[in-house]
């Protein structure tokens, strides 16, 4: 269901100000296609077991808005989901900062137990409300006075969302439902939505945060409700990069709200292979390489067929050629240093392999359930035979880091998060060296004339992914590693040649290639002396910048320094867990 906004009557405040981004409704550039037939994917509702069925609502009625405070000092708006489908009930309200187009959602619940009024019903009305906060005494720009209420659940039940009103009277007990405790899981505050303070959350004041489950791995049953938590003089917030540093996380168990839990073992809400292919064809990213990029991606088989070698500890003088499928690579185990891969011995062949082959490149998809199988993550893995040298910016000086940053075998990925309720693209994760960034669909760039295909930019030599072109400096104070991105004629359509290499929930329908279960390093350990490289580079720097540069380099992760050969996709934390 696309976003829809109904604005109730308000004061003259709206006539005296400029339109805010949230007053525009985000829609994907192209209509969502009709998905191939399947079992439960994109069916509109999902059965979480225990008598609880949920649907996703992204149409709202505005209840209260403030026009200052919060991100960019633009304020925030608070909504009720509407319309709520027949037999479903509201579980909580929605809120979003005003500095972005409206693009959110919340879940509504339906009680499918035989007797909803019995002690075992999946949903129950609250027995009362507590007023958490009111804007009545706050001297800020607002359309009305807002009141935030916390439902008081009956014994054996938990609240999963707040109610927002613009009246001091308590909401009707019929307004919202609480959820049976065994159908809930713990959650934590995520990103800062709003607080009266400008630009950053004040841990000693009032703040509103989005919520996310504590446990978000592929096998985790916790389900996000899409609601928010309001906190007054409370420090129980997650140390997210969008949250004030002083508002670091404490014990999340003390939060007044919970998330949901999928206690059903049925994964029918996940897409089948035909539906996966349709999702890839609809949303697969177009990756723009930097115009000066020398080290291009390739397929894994191209890397093997063009002379990549397998080395074994103690047998370094006897490297082995690798089968195109990786069938002679050691399988399983751990990254114990006993084996590693390297470039061909022949100098000409080595240079050829380092440059990769864009025309022969292939992407590798890992499909997994996330957030209790209410969403599907499509991790799009891209392989580069070689990661080029890094560049640094030291205030006004740009310098090449020589061998620093170079390594053989470079795995990068971008992850598409798709709603299993309707198949819509919701978020994209851009991996950036050892971390990364989640970006909402409303903030993405899409390929011109390419429907809903996401645009992604790969940084020069380092191949980190970013949602926008330009310079991202990995460091602080004007000193850091350069991540330069720009559009060029070199572009990789990740859906043109791809292979689904893993989808554990589909069982034997997907056969994993042998190279995927090679758990050792895809390149040798560092082949240079870091201290010597630093001293050589420092010769070109003014005295006061030398120590700052040295501190920067030594703080970089081994992945950036190239000190260790990278491991393959299955050895990354996000393979079974959530993204960073």
Word description of this protein:
The strands form ten sheets. Strands 31-30-29-26-25-37 form a six-stranded mixed β-sheet, with helices on one face. A four-stranded mixed β-sheet has the order 1-4-5-7, with no helix packed on it. Strands 2-3-8-6 form a four-stranded antiparallel β-sheet, with no helix packed on it. The chain has 580 residues and is mainly beta. It has six helices and 37 strands. Helices cover 9% and strands 32% of the residues.
Please write out the topology.
Layout (H helix, E strand, L loop, with lengths): L3 E3 L38 E5 L2 E6 L1 E8 L9 E6 L7 E2 L3 E4 L8 E6 L11 E2 L3 E7 L12 E6 L4 E2 L4 E3 L12 E3 L3 E2 L1 E8 L11 E8 L8 E2 L4 E5 L26 E3 L11 H11 L2 E3 L11 H6 L3 E4 L7 E2 L17 E4 L4 H8 L8 E8 L4 E13 L3 E4 L2 E4 L6 E13 L5 E8 L2 E6 L14 E4 L6 E2 L3 E7 L2 E7 L5 E3 L4 E5 L27 H9 L4 H13 L2 H4 L19
Parallel strand pairs: 1-4, 21-32, 25-37
Antiparallel strand pairs: 2-3, 3-8, 4-5, 5-7, 6-8, 9-14, 10-11, 11-13, 12-14, 15-20, 16-17, 17-19, 18-20, 21-36, 22-23, 22-24, 25-26, 26-29, 27-28, 27-35, 29-30, 30-31, 32-33, 34-35
